[in-house]
Amino acid sequence: MVPRLLLDMFKAPSERIISYPECVVQAFSTHMFGTTSHTVLIIMAFDRYVAICNPLRYAAIMTNKMVIKLTVSAWGVPLVLVGILLGLTIRLNRCRAMITNPYCDNAALFKLSCESVFINNVYGLTFTVVLFTVSIGSMVITYTKITVVCLMKKTSL
To answer: Where do the TM regions start and end (predicted)?
Structure first.
């Protein structure tokens, strides 16, 4: 995605054309990267919470089976969410064929359709709000608990 984007930056705007399949692949890659980044941050916050707040139980909680479950979740959840997101977009009939943006995302694919994209917008907004709320919320909660544990241990010494 990045080499193509860099190459297109040096072209005249009229020459920045990308095919529909390339645009879908680029949108999938971009959305998977962003969503997976958030799920990995959630898992990292959980891991740090267990390591700091329950250090003696860490090995019992973070077993190989748990690590596999967390890894599958880190990739599986984004795969399902992004799959639905792009599946809703791909189902739309296209009345235009030219994508002139050097960067493809869901919105660039919407512009090719003459149908209503209301459902796509609702799902995309819900997906974004839920993902950000869960990721930021889990990080705030776990790191707040970690801070409290650290402050309590400091005062008990």
So the answer is: 67-90, 122-144
Q: How far apart are CA 96 and CA 135, in angstroms?
A: 37
Q: Which two tokens stand for residue 37?
A: 């980044």
Phi, psi angles (nearest 5°) of residue 116: -70, 135
The residue assigned the tokens 């801070």 is: 147
Structure tokens at 18: 């990308």
Q: How far apart are CA 104 and CA 20, in angstroms?
A: 9
Query: Domain range for residue 10?
Result: 2-156
Using the structure block, give the residue that is written with the tokens 């050097």: 102
Tally of structural domains, the chain: 1
Residues of the chain with pLDDT under 70: 1-2, 100, 102, 154-157
Distance, in Å, from the CA atom of 73 to the CA atom of 30, rounded to the nearest integer, reads 18
Q: How do residues 81-107 score in pLDDT, each as one tens digit?
A: 999 999 999 998 888 877 767 678 888
pLDDT number for residue 9: 76
The torsion angle over the Cα atoms of residues 148, 150, 151 and 155, rounded to 10 degrees, is 140
